[in-house]
TrEMBL record:
Residues 136-436 form the Peptidase S8/S53 domain. PROSITE patterns: SUBTILASE (PS51892), SUBTILASE_ASP (PS00136), SUBTILASE_HIS (PS00137), SUBTILASE_SER (PS00138). The keyword Hydrolase applies. This is Subtilase family protein. GO terms for molecular function: serine-type endopeptidase activity. Belongs to the peptidase S8 family. SUPFAM superfamilies: Subtilisin-like. It comes from the Bacteria. One of its GO terms (biological process) is proteolysis. Keywords: Hydrolase, Protease, Serine protease, Signal. The keyword Signal applies. The lineage of its organism: Bacteria, Bacillati, Actinomycetota, Actinomycetes, Pseudonocardiales.
Length: 446
């Protein structure tokens, strides 16, 4: 029986164009004295799990999870030459290449709605009077975890569709998707769907359901395997829309023509495409580097050559809605990236200070432990766009991801360029604001 298995694995590997596999166990010495890292490894979509498992064992690795629909394996290995054995364009470890927003807490109050200038800016409070979203709409928050015990989420969090994805393998146990050290995901979730209960803050679509998908490690990293797991979970569970207020580590850009980068780029691209094919619209923050992401010239996080073949993940992928940030005045936040973007939304800007009583310069939302606080960033802009998409999905229940994206763009309020050379294009499609400022009221009335 062992001989038959060995032959079958070798034959399958040969047919799939993979490295030869002599037998299911390593035929050479494996150096296990190094640090163990997690990798994403590419296979032809549809390749059987046993082929991946056998090849990884042969090359001194072990399989954590395999996604046959897209041909991406998550593996661990302590062997320093593991990626070289497989080929640099097939395997990549973000952790191996490693060389949140500032938070202001706000004292709890009966109602903080008067300080939510961001909701006024996109007409969310007016929209709430017309339609607060449908409970059949499921929004995935791919982030650091959402505090399901927060009073604002008493009816919103769907435990059955939540999972931890930090290891690259989905873990549906509640502890795996709860926040631990980082409040970011809970803040994002409140913007989308905090309850309209007269206390604290109110989200854009308070009646939709939320799924917490934890992709951010406790030390703040989002590696390719975590993102792949998150998008695959979203697709398999038929989410309506996901929010992705992060870029995949360890750098800001991944380049399709560079060893290592190419594997990570393709793994995440495949996972995003899979989820889109399952009816999910993925929305992401453009980034806080104050750069033109359509014409990258440097990576501000890690050192490597960068050109137009490089993109930030996931915001730079063609299936993903990219969102820039504006402050209280409705103009681009100083930190916000720009370039090839879809829409803009409130992310806050400490240089655009609201008048007394209108709230802090950074949008208010929920924090773990039942609290509230403000954060700035395109991380905060993206969930505003997601909330509007959730309303659009509620009022257009049969819309596809492409149709929801088109509606989001079409119903945005055009914002003209300021008199600066870096902003190019007409009010309804320019490099700073894309098709304009998202409009919640239009989502429920047009």
């Amino acid at each position: 029986m062992r001989r038959l298995l060995t032959l079958a694995v070798a034959a399958a590997a040969s047919l799939l164009g993979l490295a030869p596999v002599a037998n299911a166990a390593p035929e050479h010495h494996c150096d296990s004295t190094g640090t163990a890292f997690t990798y994403v490894v590419l296979y032809p979509p549809g390749a059987p799990r046993f082929v991946a498992e056998a090849e990884l064992r042969h090359d001194c690795g072990s399989l954590v999870e395999y996604y046959p629909e897209i041909g991406v394996a998550v593996a661990t290995s302590a062997s320093p030459d593991f990626a070289d054995r497989l080929g640099p364009n097939r395997a990549y470890s973000g952790r191996k290449d490693v060389p949140v927003s500032a938070l202001e807490s706000v004292a709890p109050a009966d109602d903080l709605g008067g300080q939510q200038w961001d909701m006024d800016l996109i007409k969310a409070k007016q929209a709430n009077k017309v339609d607060e979203g449908s409970h059949r709409v499921l929004v995935g928050v791919l982030d650091s975890g959402v505090d399901a015990t927060h009073p604002e989420f008493a009816k919103a969090i769907d435990p059955a569709d939540s999972a931890g994805c930090v290891t690259g393998k989905a873990d549906p146990s509640p502890g795996a998707w709860a926040p631990t050290t980082i409040p970011h995901g809970t803040h994002v979730a409140g913007t989308i769907a905090a309850a309209d209960d007269g206390n604290g803050v109110t989200g854009i679509a308070p009646n939709v359901r939320l799924a917490s998908v934890k992709v951010v490690s406790d030390d703040g990293f989002i590696f390719p395997e975590s993102a792949v797991c998150g998008f695959m979970w979203a697709g398999r569970h038929h989410f309506t829309v996901t929010n992705n207020s992060y870029f995949v580590d360890p750098g800001f850009y991944f380049c399709r023509n560079q060893p290592g980068d190419a594997a990570a780029y393709e793994a995440v691209r495949r996972a995003v495409a899979f989820s889109t094919g399952r009816g999910v619209l993925n929305v992401a923050a453009a980034g806080n580097e104050a750069m033109d992401i359509a014409n990258p010239t440097k990576d501000t996080v890690r050192t490597h050559p960068v050109d137009r073949t490089c993109a930030t993940l996931p915001a730079g992928l063609p299936d993903v809605v990219s969102v820039t940030a504006v402050g209280y005045a409705g103009t681009k936040s100083g930190y916000s990236d720009w370039g090839k973007v879809d829409v803009t939304a409130p992310g806050g800007d400490r240089a655009q200070v609201p008048p007394t009583g209108a709230g802090p310069a950074c949008p208010l939302s929920t924090l773990p432990g039942g609290g509230y606080g403000s954060m700035c960033g395109t991380s905060m802009a993206s969930p505003h766009a997601v909330g509007v998409v959730a309303l659009l999905a509620s009022t257009h229940p049969w819309a596809s991801p492409a149709q929801l994206r088109a509606l989001l763009r079409a119903e945005a309020t055009p914002v003209p360029c300021p008199a600066v050379a870096t902003c190019t294009g007409p009010p309804a499609d320019n490099s700073y604001y894309g098709h304009g400022l998202v409009n919640a009221l239009a989502a429920v009335t047009r």
